[in-house]
Amino acid sequence: MPDLNLAVIAAHRFGFGPRPGELRAIAGDPRGWVKSQLSQPTSLPAQIAALPPAEDDLLAFGRWLARRRLNGGNAARIEERAERQGVTQEELRRLSVEEDFVENFRERATRAVAARLEAAITSERPVHERLVHFWSNHFTVSTAKPAAIALPPSFEKDAIRPHVSGKFADMLRASSKHPGMIVYLDNWLSIGPNSRAAQNPRRARRLPGGGRPTGINENLAREILELHTLGVNGGYGQADVQALAAIITGWTYERARLRDYVSDAQGERNGAQLFEFDADAHEPGPKTLLGRTYAQEGVAQGEAALNDLARHPATAHFIATKLCRHYIADTPPEAAVARVARTFQQSDGDLRETMEELVDSSEAWDTPLAKFKRPEEYAITLLRAVNARELPPGAGIAALAAMGQRPYSAPGPDGWADSADAWLTADLVWKRLEFAQAFSTRIARADVNPIDLGDACLGPAMSDETRTAIMRAESPAQGLALLFGAPEMQRR
Known about the structure:
The structure is a single chain. The protein is 55% helix and 2% strand. By secondary structure, it is mostly helical. The strands form 2 sheets. Strands 1-2 form a two-stranded antiparallel sheet. Strand 3 and strand 4 form a beta hairpin. The longest helix is centred in the N-terminal third of the chain and has 34 residues, at 89-122. The model has no long low-confidence stretch (mean pLDDT 92).
């Protein structure tokens, strides 16, 4: 028998909210509707496929950097003027770097965010798109780091999307080898202390500023252990961080030559094709990580270590906890976590089977809707509710930033917070209500009935209080604002 209550949970908790008419289609088999989307789609969403490849992102940043250096001849005169006019060096740096960034990367960033939002609002597989967002946040690469400013969209496309329904170990290797992650967490700067490059600095690759890397960098290794696999309480120590950092020395990417910058050529290769192993930078010899010694040579040593980390029991528990926190509750039920972790481990990290276990959990269908939507999820819910199909250029990014979540710009490697306390601040909630008000004003028409829209989006989850308030509204725009700002619209 059709069940609209479960359809609401399926659409909002596992997807981004329904489009008009979708709730009734889901109601016949809500669990089946979710599970049917857990297999890998046959093709990328058209908006995502049209984005520049990773090589083009790297060329864009390299050209910007080269232009800045070529124009450096004016720096002395500008600094003299700054001193005469009382402009501090800090203010000058902010002007020269940030404004230049905006000028050069606004169009690329706007296009990428619009593609991500459009893929979500138009998708016939919103459950799959939600998983893309989840894993992209788990393996965060952020524009907050200048050198990585252009890379998060191609990282998501290359390292996350192909593996959402596959094996966790494959996603871990793909993310750790992608130029986006290698740049974001500095592994391209890392050389082993006993490597050929350290023994003979002329064998070390030059950095863009002309220097050469001088030592080991632990950033990527530390985040692999703390954020990507075992978790902060996963039983590793500083010696393990140092061992993994040594194991993945030499993991870098193919850097463009100056000739590539001046040719105006467009990069065509994806992140996997750009991975490069620099044998001169690799720390030689066996290394011991978590009590296991890895004696392989070259890149195989790192691949073996990542494969073992992906299969570690602590990784299974950490991933299960994050999935249950994301889909069920801020404090995930231990029984559900245990079942999902067991399936993760027994299936060798098969992410489709792991999600099926979560979908089959009774806790995943509990009411009331416990999770507070993050700003991006909330905005996508409204866009799907009104059956939006495309976004005007630049639309939405400023609003999402005001609500606290500019896509691809997480504040740190741990990604966006996944609990309500991070988003339920007075200021951020007020920004949501402002967004709801502005969005309602823009779409209000005489033939758009807020009650009908609420029934189509929330079904039986629309509260009597919300229904009564909308019926008393003085205009369609006010009714829509009350609907879009309602508490039940903001939860999943």
